Amino acid sequence: MKYKSVIKAEFLYRKNRFIAICKKGFLTLTVYVPNTGRCKELLTEAATVFLTYDDNPNRKTSYTLIAVMKGEKIINIDSQAPNQIVEEALLKNKIDLGFKYNKIKREYTHGDSRFDFYLEGENNKALLEVKGVTLEKNGIVAFPDAPTTRGLKHIKGLINSKDEYLTYLLFVIQMKDVKFFTPNYLTDENFSKGLLEASENGVKILAYDCLVKRNSLEISEKVPVILEEKWNLD
């Protein structure tokens, strides 16, 4: 996916979950943050960030914070992006699900759960849920960076659907050059245990990293998944 009208700025502070204050030259900018996670290791004072500009008069702010520099690495934090780039990758058959699919539908409801994608092909039906990952330490990436009851509900929904569908949980790592993905037990033990339970019950757990540029984001390569061990990413 491509972003339009991207500028570089300096992060000052986060006013609340949705709003940050940044600086561009002598200008102070009020910026929308499209990620309700903590991102505390990323959104630090004086960090270099990338913003998109939109002059839509119906918006409360004209700027959206889409990415941040961590050392020499650009990390995308746009929570709206993973589903879009997964759809683009699915249409190009870049994500290996173990079968060829020729039908893709977004926002599919089954039971009391709504899943990000429904796929069909080769006499198979599949449900795919997508989660974006921005938390990284020493090449290890983890999810979540804040407790998520919604994420646990999706896991249970996938487990309950496994007799009727092939079920997948895909973690989109919104950066490049990582070693492996793992659940964040220290932040959300219930989600992490649920993820292991899902894997043991036939839900396929996948992780892919991304090629990130200041004005674009795309799915890149498969990343190893380690579910059993607990890693400290604080």
UniProtKB/TrEMBL annotation:
Which residues are the signal sequence here? none
- The SfsA N-terminal OB domain covers 13-77
Q: Where is the Sugar fermentation stimulation protein C-terminal domain?
A: 80-214
What are this entry's molecular-function GO terms? Answer: DNA binding
User: What is stated as this protein's family in its record?
Assistant: Belongs to the SfsA family.
> Could you tell me which NCBIfam families the record lists for this protein?
sfsA
Q: What name goes with this protein?
A: Sugar fermentation stimulation protein homolog
